[in-house]
Amino acid sequence: MATTGVFNGTLLVVKIGGVAVAHSTSCSLSVSTDLPDSTTKDSGGWAAQIQGLRSWSVTTDGLAVIESAAAGVNVEDLFSSVSSRTDVTLTFSTFVSGDKIWTGTAAVESLDFTGDMESPATFSASFTGTGALVMTTNA
Fold first, then answer.
1. Domain residue ranges in the chain
2. Containing H/E element for 125?
3. What is the predicted pLDDT for the residue at 43?
4. CATH topology of domain 9-137
């Protein structure tokens, strides 16, 4: 059954190649449209724009895991994508039946790996879409 109303953000998950990013603590999807100016003397003193290029990005943060046997996508996997310049198939959703799923191909734009004293090691990864972002419904 589809999620309705306000829901717990814990349900939102980023998956790469169908596998969830391990130990994620937050994630976000951003979609934007460039709005080139199309104002003319005929615009009556009002600014006008046209719909330009669309773009999208995803970020996720979490507790860092670097062991190869870890369940889910980990820091090692993300670094491998950066190192090999390999795009990833990324999905963003609650993955609840009836909910929307956003899917696209993306490049790992950045990967931060942080270790503060007496705290769990963390990571932050940013992905930039390299083409269309498609919205479908989870069956």
1. 9-137
2. strand 122-129
3. 94
4. Pnp Oxidase; Chain A (2.30.110)
